[in-house]
Amino acid sequence: MNAVARPANAPLLRRAIQLDAVATAAMAALLIAAAAPLSQWLHLPQNLLLGAGLVLVPYVAYLGWLLSRERISNAQVWSVIAINACWVIDSAIVLVAGWVQPNELGMAFVIVQAVAVAAFAELQYFGLRRQQRG
Predict the structure, then answer these.
(1) Are 120 and 13 in contact (CB under 8 A)?
(2) Cα R_g (the chain), whole angstroms
(3) More confident call, 131 vs 120
(4) Alpha carbon distance 52, 32 (integer Å)
(5) pLDDT tens digits, residue range 35-57?
(6) How confident is residue 134, by pLDDT bands cut at 50, 70 and 90?
(7) What is the pLDDT of residue 131?
(8) Has residue 1 been placed in a domain?
(9) Least enclosed by CB within 10 Å: which of 39, 40, 87, 90?
């Protein structure tokens, strides 16, 4: 098993991480810049939205750093997949635990972004598997 992903052997993996970085940066910017109006539209706490946006900033920086490397190790890819999985689980907990009472639009917002993050994790996993076989 190859311990390090090489760019030439892992285009799906790099593209999945790039997509994750771009989408996450856009979400962070939206949550930080528009926490107040989003809170009113979604019936989610403004501090939750702002905090989520701020938490995404170092993650985007990490993804950018990974993409700047010639090689991305399997452990680094697994860290990205694990972070994404935690985000999906946390999104579900926020809705199921009853800590917030979003309206239908707010529920849809949380669910759709969680599904998107799960898709990133899945693409990253498939990219990792592909590069391990290569």
Answers:
(1) no
(2) 16
(3) 120
(4) 8
(5) 999 999 999 999 999 999 999 99
(6) low
(7) 84
(8) no
(9) 40
- For every residue of the chain, DSSP letters joined together read --SEE-GGG-HHHHHHHHHHHHHHHHHHHHHHHTHHHHHHHHT--HHHHHHHHHHHHHHHHHHHHHHHSS-EEHHHHHHHHHHHHHHHHHHHHHHHTTS----HHHHHHHHHHHHHHHHHHHHHHHHHHHHHH-
Neighbours of 85 (CB within 10 A): 14
**7, pLDDT greater than 60:** no
Quote the CA–CA distance of 63 and 76 in Å, as a whole number: 10
CA distances (Å), origin 92, targets 37, 85, 88, 120, 126: 23, 11, 6, 17, 23
88 lies in some domain: yes
Q: Which domain holds residue 69?
A: 9-133
Q: Total domain count for the chain?
A: 1
CA distance linking residue 59 with residue 118, whole number of Å: 16
